[in-house]
Design goal:
Oligomer: single chain
Number of helices: 1
Structural class: alpha+beta
CATH topology: minor pseudopilin epsh fold
Helix content: 25-40%
CATH class: Alpha Beta
Largest sheet: 6 strands, antiparallel
Number of strands: 10
Order of helices and strands: HEEEEEEEEEE
């Protein structure tokens, strides 16, 4: 009896996989690079001057507002306490030995001192309260009075002793840019106001 031998079926050959196209690496052409450089240069030419204007303008606004605020504080203290209160250009801003600059000093960027002048002699004597001390500007801005005024004294009625009818302090940046200039006007009546060159052309 013949035995039928089952033929052994060979497995089908593996199905060929479709070839995946090789993706090339992306690159930047010279033209694209030049376009990017030009765009960056244009943005910087627009943005840098704007940034400089904003930062300089804000810094100088802060500087002049500090003196205005301290003058207003000194005036209110003079009225409230019924005594003389002085704001003077600082010779030394050391908390242990603050002192005022000599008469006729005009450079308020050196800092200033607010103190109660109990004997009305214009100097900080022992026992006289020092109310505030402002250090010299960290910037190279200048803050100059005209006519020369090294101190402002307020009396109990709020009037200011200036030595003249009015005093103007002009704040300038290091290169005297008119757009940044600010002025602080003080009258003998104790009134104070700030100006910019755009609001008052005589402010530089």
């Amino acid at each position: 009896m013949q035995h039928l031998t089952k033929s052994r079926r060979d497995p089908p050959p593996p199905r060929a996989q479709p070839l995946t196209p090789r993706v090339g690496q992306a690159g930047v052409t010279l033209v694209e690079l030049l376009v990017v450089i030009v765009i960056v240069a244009i943005l910087m030419s627009i943005g840098v001057p704007s940034y400089t204007y904003v930062t300089t303008s804000n810094r100088m606004a802060t500087e002049i507002d500090q003196l205005l605020g301290d003058l207003q504080y000194a005036r209110s203290e003079a009225i409230r306490e019924g005594q003389y209160v002085v704001v003077c250009v600082a010779q030394s801003t050391s908390p242990s030995s603050p002192s005022c600059a000599s008469s006729g000093t005009t450079t308020w960027q050196k800092g200033w001192i607010v103190f109660a002048d109990l004997n009305n002699n214009g100097t900080i004597d022992g026992g006289e309260p020092v109310l505030r001390i402002r250090n010299a500007f960290s910037s190279s801005d200048t803050f100059v009075s005209n006519p020369a005024t090294s101190s402002v004294t307020f009396n109990r009625d709020g009037f200011a002793h200036l030595g003249s009818a009015t005093t103007r302090l002009t704040l300038d940046d290091s290169v005297d840019t008119q757009a940044y200039a600010r002025c602080l006007d003080i009258s003998q009546a104790g009134m104070m106001a700030t100006q910019t060159h755009s609001s008052d052309s005589s402010c530089r």
